[in-house]
Every structure is written in structure tokens, then in C-alpha cells.
Protein 1
Amino acid sequence: MAVVAVSHLTKAYGRRAPALADVSLELGEGVTGLLGPNGAGKSTLLQCVLGLLRDFRGTASVLGLDARRDRLEIRRRVGYMPEADSLLPGMTGVTSVRYLGQLSGLSRRQALRRAHECLHYVGLSDALYRPGEDYSTGMRQRLKLAQALVHDPDVLFLDEPVSGMDPAARDEFLALVSALARDHGKHVVWSSHMLPDVQRVATAVVVLHAGRLLGSLRIEDLARGGDRWRVEAEGPEAAFVDALARHGLALEAGTLESGRDGAEQGRFAATVRVAGPEPLGALLRAAAEAGARVRSAEPLAERLEDVFHRLVGAAHAGTGAS
Amino acid sequence: MSAAPSVRLEGVTKSYGDVLAVNDVTATFGPGVTGLLGPNGAGKSTLIKLVTGMLSPSIGRVLLCDEPPTSSPHVMARVGLVPEQDPIYPGVSAFEVTSYLLRLHGLDRGDAASRARAALERVGLAAAMDRPVQGYSKGMRQRAKLAQALAHDPDVLVLDEPLNGLDPVGRREIVALVQALGAEGRCVVVSSHVLHEVEAMTRRVLLMAHGRVIAEGTVAEIRRDLSDRPLTVRVDTPSPREVARFAVGVEGVLSVDLSASDRVVVATRRPDDLFAAMAGAVLGQGLPVRSFHPTDEGLEAVFRYLTAGGA
Amino acid sequence: MTVHARGYRRHEGGTERPRLRFLPIVAEGYRAGTRGKAFRRLGLLFVVIVVFHGVMLYLDPAALFPRRMRGGLGQVTSDDLMRRVLAFFARSLAGLVPLVAMFVGAGSVADDLRSRALPLYLVRPVTPTDYWLGKVLAPAAVTATAYGVPFVALVAFGVLIRPSEEILPFAWRHLPSLGAVVLHVGVTALAYASVVVTLSTLVGRRIGTMVAFAGVVYGGEMLRLFSQTAPPDLAEPLRALSLGTDARVLLHEMLDVTLEHSGPQPAVTSAVAVLAACVLLGALVVVRRARSVEVTS
């Protein structure tokens, strides 16, 4: 079943170009990345889906609930983590989560119980009774996740959830969200500009651009490398390049990085087109002939970033021509 | 032209009251891009303030192009800073702010206007430069700050989280701009939490934790110095057990992880031996290997090793 | 099974579908409001004043304060004395009651705006109307507590020290007074809370709200006092601009008392109109602000 379904959604503010123009899309189960440059219409889409905007054309639904008619029911079943550094003033971590749980319909006692559980889960056990104002950026992001989880929603909308976190905190956060989707059946819509994070956590992505749906893809479809290989080796660089040519392996122009990392004399990397039944064998044979040692050889995985820029670039070219 | 663009810190310590933010740091930032990395609270922000002369050290000294910034204000004209916070200029446009700041540097009105325009065009704000900054998106503000830092053509540029709030398109443009600025021979210091973007800008990093510099150099140099951490190599194969039998016979291999069905993960203290032996086995004995690559050579892994558990 | 699932656990307790979704907001605001230092200090002051009025009921006030009470409280029957002391009590507290609403309510919406908390409410099953009700009723409830508890205690005290009469008939006769007091307290608290929350929404800062609120309340009182010098067709609107007086006019009407030395008094209809306008304006301002909130930056 579609977690979020939108059909012919159009929303314009005044006379400006519409924020969303006839968008139809479905977000499936698991973690879905919602991508798009600024002004693509991601925020407007989320506001329509949550029933915060109702004067749109077309239909929008969450878990089969109509965004106009059942908006309060939708909000009971959705947890939303805003991007802004939102904080309930003057409350401790536990108080704020408990309070928001009550607003989502939990009784006070149940909400208090859930607040503790969720805060422990997101790793704030040491800061339960400290004022939210004293939390660091990373802790505030975790607090917002606990707030989004307190009423045990089926769907989580996370808006730029790891911004401002340091690498270790970000890794932990990605792991928490992955576990929620994998082990606890939560559906997650992850809206972000940080494409490598999305690639790690999401199973599918949807790309919006200038109010239109630009494309959608599954992350597993990215992994298929094709015949482009990334090779890193040590040794005589020129001899290796010659050997590649002798074996009919095409070095992609402009990809050779020699003397990589400055001090590492003799280390180099390149992208090579390798056809044939035994790509690794062919590469290693060429290297052996040249007296070079291959440190790394793998099919070049396509990055979400590349696909994204291709899609957006094509859209720009399209609008430029028209 | 005086000394080459550089920033030198000599035994710099900075404390506020009883809070020690930077602890005995000696480091040099030369021409080109250097990434300034570290977990939250590592002292990066304080270091940036020291480097740009906004703070003076409690102990030690900071030299900007061989001159101390706090006592010779004229070297400050050679520094550009993109601060993390947004300065607020209500009701003025990016062009007005930038040209005003240039006039503070002593340029006349015409020069300031043309230089400001050029800087704003370079950061991609050509279309929006005459609109008030208040209406800008987060990404546009970031570009405006960058233009202000660039406009007076500084030799030393300090960028604190320059990609914050930018969308993917903007990120790519700014990464390219930073690379270009480094290639022009300026000393560019970039502080960021987003390691893959730092990796895209530069291979040279300076890593801080608990107020101290814990590593500096290129990622590969730092990785090589972490000799207590064996290199982990992922080998994709249709028959993991066969590859595992091979791997345990190679000198220097410490462990072989067989938990996945389509690969083995080998940890080795002597990576060169492993790579040589594997190439031999694949070519000579037909060892069934599809592909292989080290998994902990990148900046992410290096950062994790250095900041985990206070090692 | 001996090893239980660790990590996240789903919630089995279910959720309610409360009809009054604003109640948690009121409860939280009330808790926060009554815990503050300002509330305790003002509460102490109120106790002192209530004791003073108790003494007035017990002794002959005319003998104690012959000048101040001349033509006021002296030489009346005990029934009258009771009602007049209540009206007098309302006037004694007139300057203090708005302070309670001010300290408790000034931050209510402003703090939410400053810490960008509004989206946290509105992505939950909370409508802008719920938000307004919660935010207004919380300071109203705190103000009503601070004002109403001593007031009702004074009524009870008056009943206890009734002059040589059976308790039940006396209490029965004064039941309407109690009703009038409760209604007056409620109206006063609601009006002040509405104004302070409206200003909190418009000003967006706690301190600024306090200043603006003090301006509205005490400025309104000034305008009322100076209304006599204004042209006649302006006098009545000016008289009605003091919220405290408007609420007291209602009390006097219900108690059927006139207090001397109270300055110009507005007509009951204008008083009610102004009070209602405050509440409606508050609803309009807060609901509009909550509607226009963007959940993403």
C-alpha cells in the first residue's frame, strides 16, 4: 500500500508560479528520500499531506486517509520532525516529549511512560531531566526524533534530520532510523539535501524540481555498476596506462589522478572501462605486466548525487530550450 | 606583495574563565584548501576566531602571513571570513552590504561597486544581489556571506560550515568554488561536519578533539600513521570459504569475516602483501574474486578511528 | 522467553480521542504559571489584602476609617456590608490582578514564536483554535485562582461571622453574591488573559508584551479617569476602556451596589461590549498567527 499518495496536486500562492504543479506520486514502505533543490515544493507537499494547507487542487492521502477530511487522524498516525531548531520553551526533555504525547492523544501517564522510552531509545538517557535549552545541536535533533516518536506513529516525516550533527552523531542517527524502518515497521519520509546520507538510509527516492515530479528511483538500482571500474594502484603509472591500452581496456579521459594524496608517491587512481567475462582478471594482468600493485578494483557504483544532478541538469536544459 | 598566504599557530592556548577551548595548538595552514575537522566542542570555532584575530590567545601566538593579527590590523585586510552565524542587516541588499564592507577597506565608491558585483556574480547571486537579504533562503544567505568574504580578494579565507543550508545544486557549486580558490594559491581553511564534502574539496585535513590537534596531513598520511589499525579489505566473491582459506595463509592477515554470503572481509597488518598475493592467486590459481577494495582508508574511517574512545 | 526485546518498543496503550484537545495546553500552562516566583509573591500579597478586608467585616469599618469610609461602608445593615465589602475588595485588588495575568501570560505565545515551537503543536491533532483556547485559558485559570480563591474565602468568612443569625438562611441569601463573585472573577481573568495573549502574539517578545500590556491596562484606566474632561460624545467610549472597571461594573450591577469615590463608570452594555471585543480580537489574532505558520524553514 502507498504510505503517501498524491494525485494531480496543484498549489499556488497568489499569482506566483505554482509551488506544486499537477504532481502525482506515491511514496512506498520503508525509508523514502524526498529530494529537490530549494523551491522544489517539498515543504508545500508536506504541508498539504499533513492537512496544514487545505486549499490545494487534486487529492492527497496518508495511509489511505484523505488529507483534507481526515487531517487530525493523519496527524495522530504521523510523527513530524521539523527542520527548524524548534524547542518548547522552559521544559526539560521528558516534560516536552510527555506534553507533545498528550497533544497527540495519549493520557498523561501513558505519555510520561512513552516519553522515557523514546528518550532512552534515541540515546538521551543522561539528559532526561535537563532543560531542552541546555541541549547541544545533536541532542536537540535526537529530542525532536523522540518527540516525533512518542505517540508511536506509523509514518515519520523527517526534515533535514541530521543537519548540524557531527559525523559520529550522524552515524548513530542514521542507524536509529534504519532500525525503526527495518525492525519496527515504520515508514519514513526523509527530506534532505545531504544526498550521501539519503543513499545510505533510503530504499527509494523521489526528486521534485520547480513544483514538478522529476523522477523516482530505487536505491538498489543504483548499485549496478556496469563496465566502469574504479582502480587504485601503486607502481609505474605510465607503464600501467600502456598495459591497459595493450589489453584493450579504455582509460576514461580525465579520470587519472596521479600522485594522489601528495606524499604517496607512485599511487594513482583512474576509471577504466572493462568489458569481457573476467574484468578483474584483465585489470590484474595489465597491472602485473606493468609491475604495478592494485590496491582497489571495483565496479564504479553510481552515486545518488550523480543521478540527482543529471535529473536536475536535464530539467534545466529542458526549461531553457522551451 | 609580502609573505606567502599562511596561518601559523605557535603553542596557542585559549581559555574563557575556567573553560579551556584550545589547548597548546601548533599548526600551519599553507596555500591551498585545508579541512578543519572535529566533533562538536573540539575547539574549531575558537580556533577560527583566533585565526581571524577576533580573539587573542591566552598563551602562544598566531601569525597571519607572518604577522600577529591582533597587533597589526592591516593584515586583517588580507583575511576573509564566512562566519557560521548569519549577520542581520535589515532591509539592505547583498550588493549594498558587500560594497559597504569594501568601502570600509578603503575602496572608493566605483571600485567597491564593481568589485562587489564581481564577487556576487562569482558566488551565483547575480540575479538576486539587489534584493533585501531578509528575503533570502538559507542557501542564498550562505552565498552572500561568501561574497562578502571574497570581495576584497583576501589571501587567507576561513570558511565555517560554508555549505550549511545549501541544496545539492548549491553544494556542488560552492565545492567547485572552494577548490578554485585553493588552486589560485590562497590559504583556505574550511570547517565542516560533512566529511564527504570536505573530501571533495581537499585531501589535506587538520583534525581536532578536546581542544588539541590530533592529526594533520593528507588522509593517506594519517591513515598510514594509524599503524595500530589494520586495514580492512572487502573481497566480493561467489565462494567466500575458498577466498577465506586463501586469506588466512597470507602473512599479516589478522581476521577473516565470513558472515555474509557473497563476500569476505579481511583485516590485515600488511596490506601490500595481501594485494600482491591476491593478484597472484587470481591470475595463477583462478581464485574466484569479483572485486576488492579497502573499506577504511577514506576520511570517514580515519575520522572515526581518531575520535572514537579517545585513542 | 527470557531475553526481552531491547531498543524501540511499540506502544500498546492506545490513544484517546479527546474532545477537548486544548486541555493539555491549559494544564501545562497552569502548572508552569503557578510554579513561578511571581505567582507566589503576588499570592502572598493577596492574602494580606484579604485579611485586611476580613477585619473590615468583623469590626465596624466606619469607626476604623471614618474619613475613607464616610458614606461608604458605615451605617449599613450587615447584608449590605457584606456586598459592599466584596465590591470594595474588588476595587482594592484592581491594580494587582492584571499583574498576575501579565507575568503568567506575557511569554505564552511569544516564547513559542521565539523558540519556533508552533510547528511542534500544529503537526499534532491540534487546530489553531485549540492552540488559542489552550494559550488563553491557561493564564486565565491562573489569574482566576489568584483572584478567586481569596475572594471566595472572603465570602465564606463573611458567612461565618454573620451577626446573630442562623447560618443557613444567611448563606442562602448571599448565594447570589457568591455567584456574582465567581462570574466577575471569570470575566476579569478571561479579559486580561485574552489581552495579554493577543499582545504576546503581536509583539513576539516577553518583555515587550509586558510593557504593552501595562500600557493597555493602566492607560485604559487613565483614560477612564480623564473621560470627564473629554467632549461628551467621547466620554462614554473612554469610560469603557478600562478593563478592570468594566468587569467591576458587572459585579456592582449583580451585587446591586454603588461604590463612592470610584470615578466615572461606563454603562453595563459598553462594558460588556469592550470585554467581549477583547476576547474575540484575541481569538482572531492568535488563530490567524497559528494558521500562517510554516512547518518547514
Protein 2
Amino acid sequence: MSAVPNVAVPGPKRSPTMLLLRRLARRRIVVAGLVVLALVVALAVLAPWLAPYAPQRMQVAIRLRPPSLTHLLGTDEFGRDVLSRMMHGARLSFLVGFLVVVVSTIAGTLLGVIAGYVRRLDGALMRLTDAMMAFPDILLAIALLAALGPGLLNVVVALGVVYTPRIARIVRAVTLVLREQQFVDAAEALGATRTRIVVVHLLPNLISPVVVQSTFVFAYAILTEAALSFLGVGIPPTVPSWGNMIASAQQVMHQAPWLVMAPGMAIALTVVALQVVGDGLRDALDPRLRRAV
Amino acid sequence: MLTFVIRRLGSMAVVMLLVASLVFVIVRVIPGDPAAVMLGDLATAADIAKLRVALGLDRPIAIQYAIYLKQILTGDFGRSIFFNQPVVEAMLSRAELTLLLTLMAVTVAMAIGVPIGVVAAVQRGRRLDHAMTAAAMLAASLPSFWIGLTLIHYFSVQLGWFPVAGYGSPGSVLSERLRHLVLPALALGIPSSALIMRFTRTSMLDVLGEDYIRTARAKGLPAALVVLKHALRNAAIPILTVIGLTVAVLMGGAIVTETVFALPGVGRMIVQAVLYRDYPVIQGALLVVSAIYVLINLAVDLLYAVVDPRIRY
């Protein structure tokens, strides 16, 4: 399950992390994906300093200008600089994606380990995830937001709930396999408590599958957040998120198609990069997982 | 076979009960006071208290839950606050559009995904395979509402081939209504075609490595016959599963697509219900959509036996 290779490696000392990085570096497409992600993250983090204009600054005199040297991605219907708004939008998309991954990973791992390790609870917990997965992602998110109200944190909570079963199912599947391994038997024979077995023996072996799955959750969360904001039930429309930018550009898109093009492309590029990296991680960490759910 | 169906129906009933309970929790427990929301800001405390009694909200939560289960079992989904009609009626009057849209989108997704997946598998490792796999990844990463807006921009506004939005005038002929659904179906189906393509490719690759494929080739059968009859038929089960899954994704996607194209379907009704906090409609939509999803999964399981006669439950 860990990144220990089954071929002999020259040189005695190579940490699993180094090996993983080497395997990733061998695939050019994965490197490209990582570079894109690093770039978008850098632009997002440094937006307050790097963005050429303040994202909310309106200049009605220059509204709906096509891309030019002074405004690389043009201006919107209020004369705001599209590039600057995109950079600030990236902050939001990544923040939401990251927090959703944190929420669903913690909750999903907990549920999955309990279901996989505590036999009595397995059936009930898995039927619960079945029930949660019977709702389309976006419908469940919308319903939760209807109850919670709009806003950034509520979007995170809703999407966290939506994606928890995905992590839980993978974690349970891997835990079921791990539980039958000899090292778990050995620990049980030595009198280790259940908590100790979970924390010391199971969790470290769950890291790879969880990391892989969470890159995909990251990607889905960005896409779904954009859709929620587009529908007007997600992030409040005054905040420049990629979904909000597309929503507000709808009215003027036939005069200014770049207003829709730019954020759409940003979403696609980020999501593609995340998926490429996810695929790469999966192949590098464990080829056997390639065909998992 | 019969025992399998009965067992499968049993677990389906359990899942549906859980679904109904989740819906109850989401709709009744999390939000504040539905009565206050229904009456709006101008309501007096006395009005709210009266409505609470009328809706049964003053009773213990367990009793409320029992009443709720009894109501949905008898097909009573309550009355929409915003549309001012029974939820079932409101949904049925919009169901045709959403049903047609979903069917057309599944057709689009299959028509693009399956052939491309087959070609990519046959061309494995060659340039065409890489190009198609990359295209699929891009398609899966585009927000469907963005695809919709782009299609409107080019095919409706600039070329004028399709209507910009809407579902035609009431009572227009079926072909006219279908014309309104072409672009929405494309916007909805294209991202899902990527998923179907990936599954088709993987499933075909598994089958193409089998001995009987080599035998079929060795005895000189035309390549097309081997691929389409010997291989695709045997690769069909995972593909069927993913198509079943796709329908669920599409039902969710319809919410967004109907909003983009201003289509008066169930999806748009759900968005309006959320914006107006129309709880009975949200509740009904959650129940109906998840029930359809669970039923589709059952249908897919049963279809396995039809596609693959070796499967006997």
C-alpha cells in the first residue's frame, strides 16, 4: 500500500517521498499539471500585490473593452479589470476546494475506517452513504444551501457533506483489505487497542488512496462551486468568484464573449490540471488502485 | 433470479427509507421555522403560531416524522408555497421537458462517448488515443453552464440555427419543442460523454486482450466485426453501469442547464424553490429524483442478465 517499490533501487537511502517525487517527475504531463496548479495558486495567493487593478474598481468610461495591453483580459460591464477579478476569483475557488477537501477527508476517513473496521456498523454506515449518493451532487448541495442559506462557509459545509461518502467508500474498501493483513493480526495478538490499531496501523496506510481521491474531490468541488454560484445559491454575487463572473457576464456575453471565455477557461484549466495530477499520483502511489471506484 | 430481485428490492427499500429520513432532516430540522418563512416578514407571531399548528410543527419531532412518512407513502408531497399548487402537480406539469432533455442528453453522451471510447481502445497508445483521451478530460472539466452559454453564443446568436432559450410557445408541435432542446442536450451531454468514453475505453481494453478475440482475428473475421460484435458486446456491462450513473448526474445537471436556457422544467423549478425557500418543493424534488436514481440502478442490475446471458442471479 505504501510507496515502497517492488524493483530494486540503486543507492541505499531513498525516502518514500523522494521515490514518489521521482516517479511523478518521470511523467511530463503530470509535471505540466503541477506547474499549472503552482502557477494558479501563486497568482491566487499573490493577487492583492500582483493584480494590476483593484478587483472592485469600476471605470464606467471603459466598460466592456476587449482584451488590450492595459487590460490583458478586457473589462466587464462595470469597467472592472477582468484579469484582476480572475486572480481574486482563483483565491476563492482554491479556498473552497481546499476547505471542502479538508472537511470531506476528515469526515470520510472517520466514517470509512469505522465502517471497515467495526463490523457491526458496516452495514448501517454503507446504506447511509448509499442514500447520500442517491442524490445528484448538485441537488444535494442546493438543498443543503436552501437550509443553511448562501455564503462561503455554508458552501464549504454543503460540498463537504456531498463529497464525504466518496472518501468514505474508498477508505472502507481499503480498510477491509488492511484489516485481514498479518500486521493487524499481529498487533491484535499483542493486545493493541482498537484505537491504537486504527491510528498506528491503519491510518498511515490509508494516506495514499485518500490523497488520490481528494485531488478529484478538489476538482469536483471547484466545478460544483462554480455551478452553485452561477445559480445564485452559492457565494454572494458581489464576491468575484469564477462562477459569479460567468453568471453576471451572461447578460452582456454577446457583446463581450471574453467575459465568459476567461473564467470558463480558468475553471477548465484548473480542473484538468487537478485531474492529471490525481491520475499521476494514483499511478505513482499504487498501480493497483488504478481501477478502483 | 426471483430471490435476487426480492433481495434487491429489500435493500432498495432500506435505502429509500434512509433517503426519506435524510430529506426530513435537511428540510425540517436544519432550517429555522418553515411557518415564519412561508408567511414572510410581515406575519405576526399569532399568525405564525396558527400556521405551525396547521402544519403540525408544534408536535414532537417523532410524530412529525411519522406523519411525514405516511404522507410520502400515500403520494402526498404537500403544497408548493410559491407555485400555489400541489407539489406533485407542479412537478408533473414540468416533467415532460426534463424527461426529454435528460433522454436527449444521455443519447448525446452515448453517441459521443461509446464510439470514441471504442476507437481509442483499438488505437491504444497511438496518437489518436492520446488525443481522444485528452479531449475527454477537457470535456469533463468544462462547466456545463459554460458550454451552454458558448453554444448559445455561436449557434443561436451568431449562426441563428437554434432558438436562444425557452421551450417554444405553449402547445407547439413536438418537433419544435425538440428543436429547443438540441443545444441544452449538447451542453448537458458533452461533459458526461467524457466519463462514458473513459469507461468504454478501459472496458474494451480488458476484452480486447482476451483469447477469444485473438481466435476471432486468427480465423480471419473482419476487424470491424471482431471489435463491434465480439468485443463491444462483452465490454457492455461496465459501460451500462456508467450510463446508469450518468442519468443521475444528468438529472442534477438539468438543474443548471434549464437555468442557462430558461427552460421551464423541473430543474428550474427547484432553483426557484430554493431562492423562495419553498420547502415542500425542495422536499418533493429530493425524494423523486433520488427514487428515480435508485430505480435506475435496479434496472441496470437487472439488465446485466439480459446483456450477458451467463449472469444468472
